[in-house]
Specification:
Blueprint: H1 2-29, H2 33-168, H3 172-253, H4 257-377, H5 383-397, H6 399-404, H7 409-416, H8 419-422, H9 433-439, H10 453-472, E1 479-481, H11 482-498, E2 508-513, H12 525-537, H13 543-552, E3 559-565, E4 570-576, E5 584-585, H14 587-617, H15 627-742, H16 744-900, H17 912-991, H18 996-1025
Parallel strand pairs: 1-3
Antiparallel strand pairs: 1-5, 2-4, 3-4
Helix pairs in contact: 1-2, 1-18, 2-16, 2-17, 3-4, 3-16, 4-15, 5-14, 10-14, 12-13, 14-15, 15-16, 16-17, 17-18
Length: 1026
């Protein structure tokens, strides 16, 4: 930068020198006043730019000095920070090594005791399990024994009844003889029945044949009758023809025949007029019938339209009914959902009742403790003896709680009875190496570890924030799973050390580092949910970028767990599914459950410390120590407060249930209204169905009307046709009479021939009639004979049927007697067999009773033995826990040393070896803390120097920018001067030839100045690019 600035300055000086040369030459050449004034003005403007450029250069030089100074200070501060940081890291390594050594020393002594405790607890649990099994066996044996005794008594009663029944039965020999006789009679009756059946079948066959023959003869007679009737009719018709032909012949042979024909003609003509009038009248009747028929057709069409309208209205009514039914279904579904919610509240109330009962037991126990403390207070122990007794009694009674103070989440899981299914998660020797390695990052219950009670309690607030977010999205909240909580704890510890997901368990997981309190702007949900939700809604659906948000709002999640290391700012949430034997709770239930457990432990811890302090502070005075009494009173108050909290929650749930029940009434009314709507819709459908039926009836009647009118119309048509045929017949007769009169002789001869032919036809017909009559009479005789045979066959069939019925009745009676005899024998045999079975069953039941009595005696002995064994194991467990308690407290002191260094109180550590470890650790913590202060100072100094460096850099850049601005202004000025001067000198060259050489020099000088200016511009451009 320095060399560049020097180049710029040299270029500017060169340029200024060139410009000054031009001005001097111009002053020597031109003597005019105006030109001299112009030169002086130019020199003044140039001086001004030179002054500005000089000042800007000085400022750049000053800022350069400041920048270099700040940069040096920043470099020194950075180096100092690296040195102090290295020193801190070295000491922190030593602290960690000493911590691990101290922790290992404690665990070397504590772990064998813990192993023995675990072994004893396993033995106790196994013994309890065996005790429970033996108790169950004993109870079941008692129940079975009572039932067996009842069964034996019932069998005795049954046997007595069977024996009494057997005594009332006949002798088995008599019963057998009666059965054989009945079977013999039944066989004889069966033979008679078979014979009667054969006769009846034969008679039926003969009757069937006779009936068929008679029917055939009747058919033949009917055919003969028809043939005879036809022959008679033919003779009659031919007789009429003969008579008609004879009359015509007679008419022709009558002397007045022509006159009579004329008279008949006149009569026929008169008849024709009458017949024509009749046709006219019938044509009117036909028109009326047609009109009536058309009206009936129109009525049918109207009825058809009405029927279709009625059907359409019925379909609409059915649709309305379906809609009403759908509304009813929805209302019923809402009501059913409400009932399920009420049932859920009832279940919650039941659970609360159970919790209240448990806490009530704790209150009762605390009350008993308080009463005992009061009695002890009223006793005459010395303060020291009383304090020691109170402490011993307290440690004996609350040994489990005292051990759980340092057991972290393990103690809580044990209190729920689910640690057996979780312990493999924390087992470094897990059968799955990856899980064992993951577990190695966890130090159960240690301060700062995710399993510590404090961190576990802190997780509740984050779970509640999660619950709030789920509800905002209309989602139900998964249950808090103890499996998921345990997995979250080991993953959080792993994440603190490794800074990544473990990937060991197949749960969805959210991790975060460096956040703060739940429900604040520092909560991890600000990143997981708020930020990623915005990304998701903006269209970013990559799981790698919005996966935390998707995990939070996943509707399929069943369980969740949360863990954190509050000091280190590590947060882990698991999203999983229901595991077998897992214990799950709602977030509120988990909060209540854990806080009750935690507060109880803290209360026990506070009392324990107070009791220990009481022992340490006791002296030889006779003043009574009321510490135990106050502690018992405080514990009693704590338990009562917990009970009150549960009772208040019970009231809230009960009120919520009452609200649901009130809603149920409204919903039930809605259901009733919907049912009424359905009923009304059904009524409408039924009414529309009736309307359809009525319309269908009307349509049917209209169709019948059309059919009736069509019949009338057809009859009118027939009458009209007959009348027209009558007119035609009369007209033909008239034509015939006219022809006869006109051709009398010819027609006379013709009539005689026709008469002769008709007579021959009549003779033939009479012959046919005679033959037909003979055939008819013969057929009637055959019918009479066949019917006689049929009647005789009917009599025989009736007689055979009567004999069959008698034989059947006799056989049925003999069969019934046989069945009764067989039943009597079977009853006897069954009774005998039942008696034998009852006696055998009584023997079996008696053996069962003996076995059950032996079982009860055996289980009673085992129960007594197991109880004694458990008592011994519990005593050993109490002793081992008492041995472990001081070592567990060493872990607490270890955490204190990590936080306070050598200032931590080691007076409670009597173990010299561990005390030495703790002292050494305290010294290294002190050294680290001293260096840590220096590190903080170095960091602050580094930040300060770095900020000064940035400020100096910014000031330098601004000074250079100002300097460049002055250069730019100078460039512009020089270019303007160049443009104004050159044209003026060229004009002088034209007017005065003596000054031409001078003008040339001026141009050269200006050209030089231009090149210098070009150098300035080029140099500045290169500098800016750099």
């Amino acid at each position: 930068m320095k060399k560049t600035n020097e180049k710029v300055l040299m270029s500017v000086v060169a340029g200024m020198t060139a410009l000054q040369g031009v001005s001097s030459t111009m002053m020597n050449i031109s003597a005019t006043t105006s030109h001299v004034a112009n030169v002086k003005q130019t020199m003044t403007k140039s001086d001004e730019f030179e002054s500005k450029l000089h000042d800007a250069k000085n400022i750049v030089a000053e800022k350069k000095i400041d920048f270099n100074s700040a940069k040096g200070a920043y470099s020194v501060a950075s180096k100092q920070l690296e040195i102090v940081q290295a020193a801190y890291d070295a000491r922190n390594v030593v602290v960690k090594q000493n911590y691990q050594a101290t922790y290992d020393a404690i665990m070397n002594e504590l772990q064998p005791i813990l192993n023995e405790i675990e072994s004893l607890e396993t033995q106790i649990n196994d013994s309890k399990k065996n005790l429970e099994e033996q108790t169950t066996l004993n109870d079941q044996a008692t129940v079975n024994l009572e039932q067996a005794q009842k069964d034996l008594d019932a069998k005795k009663t049954e046997l007595a009844e069977l024996q009494n029944k057997l005594a009332t039965l006949k002798d088995v020999a008599d019963l057998t003889t009666a059965l054989e006789t009945a079977k013999s009679e039944q066989a004889a009756a069966n033979e008679v029945l078979t014979s009667a059946q054969e006769k009846a079948d034969t008679a039926d066959t003969e009757l069937t044949n006779a009936i068929a023959d008679a029917e055939a003869k009747k058919a033949t007679a009917e055919e003969a009758s028809i043939a005879y009737d036809n022959a008679v009719a033919d003779v009659t018709a031919k007789t009429n023809i003969v008579e008609e032909k004879q009359a015509i012949v007679n008419q022709f042979e009558d002397e007045n025949g022509i006159e009579n024909a004329k008279t008949e003609l006149e009569a026929a003509q008169t008849d024709l007029v009458v017949a024509q009038k009749n046709v006219t009248s019938l044509q009117e009747a036909m028109r009326q019938a047609q009109t009536a028929y058309d009206a009936a057709v129109n009525a049918q069409q109207t009825a058809q339209t009405n029927y279709e309208l009625a059907v359409g209205e019925l379909e609409i009514a059915k649709t309305n009914l379906a809609n009403a039914q759908e509304s009813l279904n929805k209302a019923q579904t809402d009501y059913d959902t409400n009932q399920k919610e009420i049932e859920a509240k009832n279940n919650e109330i039941s659970a609360l009742n159970a919790q209240i009962a448990n806490v009530q037991n704790e209150v009762d126990r605390a009350q008993a403790d308080y009463d005992k403390a009061l009695n002890d207070y009223n006793s005459t122990y010395s303060p020291l003896e009383q304090a020691k007794k109170n402490l011993a009694d307290f440690e004996s009674k609350y040994a489990t709680e005292l051990n759980r103070l340092t057991a972290g989440s393990q103690g809580y899981f044990e209190s729920l009875g689910c640690y057996d299914i979780l312990k493999e998660i924390f087992n470094v020797n897990n059968a799955f190496p990856s899980r064992g390695e993951l577990a190695s990052y966890t130090h159960m219950g240690q301060a700062g570890d995710a399993t510590s009670l404090e961190n576990m309690q802190a997780s509740i607030a984050y779970l509640k924030e999660y619950d709030k977010l789920r509800k905002q999205n209309g989602l139900s909240t998964p249950k808090v799973s103890m499996v998921a909580m345990a997995i979250a704890q080991v993953n959080a510890n792993y994440a603190q050390a490794e800074g990544n997901h473990s990937g060991v368990y197949g749960y969805s997981e959210n991790l975060a580092w460096g956040y703060g309190e739940a429900g604040t702007g520092a909560s991890p949900f600000r990143g997981w949910y708020d930020y990623e939700k915005k990304q998701y809604e903006a269209g970013n659906h990559k799981f790698s970028e919005v996966g935390h948000y998707l995990n939070i709002v996943n509707p399929d999640d069943e369980t969740t767990g949360f863990a954190l290391q509050k000091v280190n700012g590590v947060y882990a949430q698991e999203f999983g599914y229901f595991e077998e034997k897992d214990i799950v709770m709602s977030i509120d239930e988990f909060e209540t459950s854990f806080n009750d457990y935690y507060n109880n432990l803290k209360s026990v811890d506070t009392q324990h410390k107070a009791l220990k302090d009481a022992v340490n502070n006791a002296n030889g005075t006779t003043t009574k120590d009321d510490t135990a009494l106050k502690n018992a009173e405080a514990l009693l108050k704590s338990k009562k407060d917990a009970l009150t909290g549960l009772q208040n929650k019970f009231t809230q749930v009960n009120n919520a249930k009452a609200t649901l029940e009130a809603n149920a009434t409204v919903m039930n009314n809605t259901v009733t209204e919907a049912k009424n709507a359905v009923q009304n819709a059904e009524n409408t459908v039924n009414q529309k169905k009736a309307n359809v039926a009525n319309a269908e009836q009307a349509l049917s009647e209209a169709k019948s009307g059309v059919e009736a009118k069509e019949t009338v119309k057809a009859e009118a048509e027939k009458k009209l046709a007959d009348a027209k045929a009558d007119v035609n017949s009369i007209q033909a007769r008239i034509d015939t009479l006219n022809d006869n009169i006109a051709n009398w002789d010819t027609n006379k001869a013709k009539a005689r021939k026709e008469l002769q032919a008709a007579q021959e036809n009549l003779k033939t017909a009479n012959n046919v009639k005679t033959e037909a009559k003979k055939a008819f009479e013969k057929a009637n005789e055959d019918v009479a004979k066949a019917e006689a045979v049929r009647d005789e066959a009917q009599i025989k069939a009736d007689q055979a049927c009567e004999e069959l019925e008698k034989a059947t009745a006799d056989f049925e009676a003999k069969s019934e007697a046989t069945d009764k005899a067989q039943k009597a024998v079977d009853d006897y045999n069954t009774s005998v067999e039942t008696v034998k079975n009852a006696q055998a069953e009584m023997k079996i039941i008696g053996n069962q009773i003996d076995e059950l009595k032996v079982c009860k005696e055996s289980t009673n002995e085992k129960i007594d033995s197991l109880k004694a064994q458990i008592e011994v194991l519990n005593k050993s467990l109490t002793e081992k826990k008492a041995d472990a308690l001081p070592l567990e407290q060493f872990k607490t002191v270890l955490n204190d040393v990590m936080n306070q260094g050598s200032k931590a109180d080691l007076t409670s550590v009597e173990n010299e070896k561990i005390r030495a470890f703790l002292s050494q650790l305290g010294a290294t913590v002190d050294e680290r803390n001293v260096v840590q202060k220096s590190l903080e100072e170095a960091k602050n100094n580094y930040v300060e120097k770095y900020n000064l460096y940035l400020n100096a850099k910014e000031a330098l850049l601004k000074a250079e920018s100002d300097y460049n601005e002055v250069l730019s202004q100078l460039n512009a000025f020089l270019f303007e001067q160049n443009k104004e001067t050159i044209p003026a000198k060229k004009e002088e060259a034209k007017t005065d030839s003596v000054n031409t050489g001078v003008s040339t020099n001026v141009e050269a000088s200006v050209t030089t100045a231009g090149l210098a200016l070009a150098g300035i511009v080029l140099t500045e451009t290169k500098r800016r690019k750099k």
